[in-house]
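Quick log. Single chain, no ligands specified.
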Amino acid sequence: MTPFRRVLLVTVVLLTCVGCDQITKMAARNHLAFSQPTFYLAGIFRLQYMENTGAFLSFGSAFPSGLRFWVFTILIGIALVGMVVVILVHRSLSPTDITGLSLTAAGGIGNLIDRALNNGAVIDFINVGVGSLRTGIFNIADVAILAGAGVVIFLGFHRRRRRCVRSK
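-> predicted structure:
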């Protein structure tokens, strides 16, 4: 992949994901923040506004605010910059690798923007499940992170399996 196409792919994924994430969070803040949860498809989907000062499933929300700032804003910010640099310069990455890693970085950037603009908190508003079996409350950035990680993990298993078949 040429450097121009690599930069273009990364830019499109980052701008699209971060843009969608921030637009949906703005809509959640404007329409869900002061209302009761809204249910769709017989309760499978629930929209409910929540501000999360921690990470995944509120991990770290009980940390002192200074520690949360350093871990979830500064360290994660540095890691995301490093990740984007690796995506842009590592020549052996396939377009699918680049897309998966860019999705993960985009989700991290979306949540980092929230922390910077929302006093260290991330806006979450989506909940999925049936009855008492439900996910935690999440956002579009979280979906991008999981989708990107899923692509990278799937590719890793697929490549490893292909290498094992070839070596037999």
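The mean pLDDT is 92.
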